[in-house]
Write a structure and sequence with these properties.
This protein is of the alpha/beta class. It has one domain.
């Protein structure tokens, strides 16, 4: 899924965040050409080849802006330790590039063509919830890119939905106002993929609870920065105290619907894998909700350790940690 809640400066290369020079202006103009010209051209190729070219684009981005790759490597070294996994994590820009490509693949190719290159694990868990006539919280993360989960669910006769933070034009510095077009485009693509306008964050949980009660599969990312979400709870993440939102668990309990952990990855063969884990049923018991919260954070950490290159937050994972754990970041 696109990261709609990031600040605009997080979208820009580090070198451009630090200067208002003509170089920054030129870099951002080139970025817009890259996104609105190069990516549409890449999407015209067959899916595996398009992803291979998307990976190449990601490697070029890493070469062009080595500061981002260096920052990701430093954080990965702190959290993962294993040099081999650190090297893998530094390739995250390849996967992020393919996530950007997904918007155009969705627009220019029938989903049946893309579906040939999607491998599904745990589909029986979706069918289990569907047979019960229930909606669910599809608890994911910013791993691997998940735009195609929406047409996939629709192909199964399920109703997808997600919660999106609105991005206002006023949030964009004047120098980078053109980037507002980028976020509007991604929002438009997601709306088409979902088949309905996304729910907006900041409206409370009542709207989300009602949607799930009516049978909607509501995709929510667990790895949302604490300063951009509502209520959070403390947990342990990679051995450090951290905070993650607890909204998904509140919604599931109030809607009397299960949580289905879900992870996506772009595999080495340039095919996607959707992994659905066993549904977790919640009650309103606070202790049970807290235990489920910790368990889901552990599942997220396990997925990141297993496939570190899939995680989009390697440039700034410190945003999840408590201030005492951010020293020396």
């Amino acid at each position: 899924m696109p990261i709609f809640f990031i600040a605009v400066e997080d979208f820009l290369p580090i070198t451009c965040r630090e200067t208002d020079s003509w170089l920054a202006v030129m870099w951002n103009l080139l970025s817009l050409l890259d996104y609105f010209l190069l990516l549409p051209l890449l999407s015209l190729f067959p899916v595996p080849l398009a992803y291979q070219l998307g990976r190449l684009r990601g490697r070029l981005h890493a070469w062009w802006n080595p500061d981002r790759t260096a920052a990701a490597g430093q954080y990965a070294e702190r959290l993962l330790g294993d040099p081999q996994k650190v090297a893998v994590a530094k390739r995250y820009q390849e996967v992020l590039s393919c996530d950007e490509l997904d918007a155009y693949l969705f627009l220019f190719k029938p989903f049946r063509q893309v579906a040939k290159f999607i491998h599904v694990e745990g589909a029986e868990y979706l069918q289990e919830v569907k047979r019960l006539g229930k909606g669910a919280i599809l608890l994911g993360a910013h791993l691997g890119g998940g735009l195609f989960i929406n047409p996939f669910l629709r192909s199964l006769g399920l109703t997808p939905q997600l919660i999106m933070r609105p991005v206002m034009k006023e949030e964009f510095p004047h120098l980078f106002s053109a980037l507002h077009l980028y976020f509007r485009f991604r929002s438009w693509c997601v709306t088409r993929a979902v088949g309905a306008p996304p729910l907006l964050s900041g409206r409370g949980v009542a709207e989300a609870v009602e949607a799930v009660r009516q049978g909607t599969f509501l995709w929510i990312a667990l790895d949302v920065p604490p300063y951009l979400t509502g209520k959070t709870m403390q947990t342990e993440f990679f051995g450090h105290p951290a905070r993650f939102p607890c909204g998904p668990f509140i919604i599931a309990a109030r809607a009397e619907a299960p949580i289905v952990p879900f992870f996506s990855s772009l595999d080495a063969n340039n095919q996607r894998t959707f992994r659905f884990l066993q549904p977790i049923w919640l009650t309103a018991d606070p202790h049970e909700m807290e235990e489920t919260f910790h368990e889901c954070v552990r599942l997220l950490e396990k997925e990141i350790r297993t496939r570190p290159e899939q995680w989009f937050f390697w440039e700034g994972p410190w945003i999840f940690f408590e201030p005492s754990s951010q020293d020396g970041r």
